[in-house]
Amino acid sequence: MALDSRQLEALTRASRDDLDIAERIARLEDLEAIRNLKSLYVGYCDPYDPEGFASVFAPDGVWQGGDYGEYRGYEALRDFIANDVRDDYVWTFHYLLRPLIELSDDRQTATGEFYAHIYEVLHDDTAPHGQRSVVAFARYFDEFVKIDGQWRIAHVRAETSRLHRMNNDWIIP
Question: Bigger pLDDT: 104 or 13?
Fold first, then answer.
């Protein structure tokens, strides 16, 4: 992600002396709430919890990613996990890394970029034990919105940058 000078300053500024202490603390609380929201997101992805997954999104929230396409709104997001993801994967495990979150001045919206290291076991009738294991490296480009004082995901764009097959010997049927 190439940053312009304004973005670089916003993400690396050591102090916000232009804000009073209450506003500075509120900004820190918002940033932490967004990090927690993204952790909930992957926490609902891995056990394939469709209701939990959809609950972290805004009502008109969007998830888009590669071959999976785009899903908009609670029902589409829920069905995406309940059907498409559950049908393809035995299990997944997401590790989120390097969160970069930029909060708007009015603290009502934010953007974020996260790296992800994802272990995946997929259904595959041609593989030993009917399963294939891969490790994926991805980046999430997210938009967040505050609704009635609660942070929600407005948009997720997932981009897989690397996908490596793993030796299946470690899979226990």
Answer: 104
